[in-house]
Amino acid sequence: MSLDMNLLDAQAPIGVFDSGVGGLTVVKEIMHQIPNERIVYFGDTARVPYGSKSKDTITRYSRQIAHFLETQKVKAIVVACNTASAYALEDLEKEISVPMIGVVKPGAKVATETTRNGKVGVIATEGTIGSKIYSQYINQITKDIKVIGKACPLFVPLVEEGLLQDPVTDEIARRYLAELIDIGIDTLILGCTHYPLIRSTIQKIMGDAVTLVNPAYETARELKELLEKRNLLNDKPILLGEDGHRFFVSDAADKFKVFANSILKYGILSAKVVDAGDY
């Protein structure tokens, strides 16, 4: 849906949504790279994970959340979920009234610039791997790169349960990543926003010769460029003591708040429960 960008308020917040807590890795990067921006975050904690669900279901969930974020008067929306970016972003862009970006294209672009031997691995949910969206984007840029996808469905629940440094996570990661090590990839895309939270484990198993690409970092960078291009960067800093960011979830607000505070170091005082199905 087209919209006159002059009607958007540069001081309005950025909407960010994810299937659960993983999108907080994108929020963290936005806070670091463009600290004046206020954020409205929605984590669909009642319906996580998205990776095993159908395209129609993910698109329906994403549409509901995007409409909720519109009610919060956001000036842009970041789809901080690889599965939703793969399955729903194209449809959402046609009907949502503010600029939108996903997390897939930024990560794919950096991977093509990073690889030396032309073998790029992607670890992600079953939905993202099944969509082959990373392969499509990478091979649009260059056809010479071989993209090897590996679904790692247990990583999301492990992260959601806070098992970031745990022998169980180590063992599952070794099993998932063994195939990619044998193939000899030199670049690995963390194709789910939950995965940077176990980055140290993945790097340890893959070894220093493999470069990890974190789409959360690249997405924040692309968001900054988009806001600059459309004259929507906020030039007024968030004042000390001002409640600049708002957090919403579809379930388990207290658990989310504890987890979010451990990641963001921001001091989240509250997370409100909203039924996204109402939108």
Q: SSE layout and pairings?
A:
Layout: E1 14-18, H1 24-33, E2 39-43, H2 55-71, E3 76-79, H3 82-87, H4 89-95, E4 100-102, H5 104-114, E5 119-124, H6 126-131, H7 133-141, E6 146-151, H8 155-160, H9 167-183, E7 187-190, H10 199-206, E8 211-213, H11 215-229, E9 246-249, H12 253-264, E10 272-273
Parallel strand pairs: 1-2, 1-3, 2-9, 3-4, 5-6, 5-7, 7-8, 9-10
What coarse outline follows from CA principal-axis ratios? globular
SSE pattern: EHEHEHHEHEHHEHHEHEHEHE
Percent in helix? 40-55%
Structural class: alpha/beta
Tell me the strand percentage band. Answer: 15-25%
Mind explaining what this structure looks like?
The chain is of the alpha/beta class and 279 residues long. The chain folds into two domains: 5-102 and 217-278, Rossmann fold, CATH 3.40.50; 104-215, 3-Layer(aba) Sandwich (Rossmann fold). It is built from twelve helices and ten strands. It has helices spanning 24-33, 55-71, 82-87, 89-95, 104-114, 126-131, 133-141, 155-160, 167-183, 199-206, 215-229, 253-264; strands spanning 14-18, 39-43, 76-79, 100-102, 119-124, 146-151, 187-190, 211-213, 246-249, 272-273. The strands form two sheets. Strands 4-3-1-2-9-10 form a six-stranded parallel beta sheet, sandwiched between helices. It has a four-stranded parallel beta sheet with strand order 6-5-7-8, with helices on both faces. Helix 12 links the parallel strand 9 and strand 10 (272-273). The protein is globular, with a radius of gyration of 18 Å.
